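lol ok so funny story. i was supposed to be doing the assay writeup but got distracted and ended up predicting the structure for this chain instead. priorities right. anyway since i did it might as well share w the group, maybe its usefull for someone
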Amino acid sequence: MNRFISLQADDGHKFQAYESGSPDSPHAVVVVQEIFGLTANIQATCEHLGRQGFHAIAPAVFDRAMPDQILGYEPDDIEKGLTLRSQIPLDLTLKDLTACADYLARPKTGIIGFCWGGRLAWDAATLTRRFSAAVSWYGGGIADSLARTVHCPVQLHFGGEDHSIPHMDISKIRETHPETEIYVYDNAGHGFGNADRHSWNAEAASLAWKRSTDFLEACLRTE
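and the output, tada:
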């Protein structure tokens, strides 16, 4: 099952989401977009997780600022995405992520995010208690919120050549949260997991996916 659906957060906001996999899948996960919207890559990510045994759903978090926004990967698109992001308070985005978890209706639900979504996965793990596992790929700004309590197991993936996330930040995360799994891929840059971006690194992405799905499966077991 691959389809767009409409969901509603607890404040009444209605938004689109992309769903893949079956409600009967062994596990459930919320997928959080990059700064570009529900792109073909994010849809493909949901479908990949669906094939791996996950019921996956990705919310259109831009809908709170401007519905139906799917951007490209050029600098102007990044600027537009950042502008849209700035118009959406974090607490409202977390309501959308929580609404997706409620829709999945499992005893344990995971969350995985990329870029902005990677930061949001960290926010969901530290500012809510709705998730049982969180995976972040190249989430920026995590080092700015290390005083928070982490409420579920977290796994972080970074590119060693990602100039937007300083190595010092990664070191700070390791020191402050030694319980967190952290992987750095030496020859990978920002966005290394997105096959539609010039920074895609197939080897790093393949290894990061193996680690991510193994982690989620282990954390989301209910037996």
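The chain has one domain: 2-220. The first helix runs from residue 40 to 51.
back to the writeup now i swear
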